[in-house]
Amino acid sequence: MEVIKQSETLADQAYALLKRSIVNGELKDEQTLPEETISKELGISRTPLRDALNRLASEGLIIQKKGRPAIVAGFTREKSLEYMEIRSVLEIHSLTKVVAKADSEFIRNLRNNLSEQLVAIEKNNFQEFIELDREFHILLASRNSNEELKDMIERMNTGVNRAFLILSSTIPKSAKGAYEEHVEIVDAIEQKDIRLAENKMIVHMNNVEKRFLNYYSNSPSNKI
């Protein structure tokens, strides 16, 4: 892991670094996070580290137990499907609220993300694609004025993102399909067609679940 930069808030930076390490799989499911070891690696005291761990626990990324080191949370098939169901409800609702607010800058940012997705697919960099997918969905919600809803969408996407990363060896065969669905969503937003955008998002969310179930059925274990 990287060393903390003193110019930034220590707790915030520790949170960001640990979250990234968990999401990208550097820190594995059920891996322990001893405070003394982690604080030394990051170059900070335990106080800001504990703040960071508390935030990660509130997002469901780690599990804290009294008198024991925190551990990285595991994701079962059932838990991942729960995340997807909540994510679908939130994102479809949010999309209907932001279409009318879509301006040229918003569309440009979405198109830039789509371009990066395509590059990642062409380079067979599917870990990068999954992260860009997460960023795409968070960006879609960014014009919603409901901060709590945006935070929930980010949390749900982070959990689903981890699930897909762990099964990433099966991603190549459907990444292009996901990308094309993203394009159709943005096209509908640019047309300011709320109903079409909503329908495209529903199709995309249904396909995300189908892909996951397909990945999971081909996984050698019952846990992701």
UniProtKB/TrEMBL annotation:
GO terms for molecular function: DNA binding; DNA-binding transcription factor activity. InterPro entries: GntR_C (IPR011711), TF_FadR/GntR_C (IPR008920), Tscrpt_reg_HTH_GntR (IPR000524), WH-like_DNA-bd_sf (IPR036388), WH_DNA-bd_sf (IPR036390). Residues 8-75 form the HTH gntR-type domain. Coiled coil: none annotated. The keyword Lipid biosynthesis does not apply. CDD domains: WHTH_GntR (cd07377). Pfam families: FCD, GntR. Keywords: DNA-binding, Transcription, Transcription regulation. The keyword Acetylation does not apply. PANTHER family: TRANSCRIPTIONAL REGULATOR, GNTR FAMILY, UXU OPERON TRANSCRIPTIONAL REGULATOR. This is DNA-binding transcriptional regulator, GntR family. It comes from Bhargavaea beijingensis.
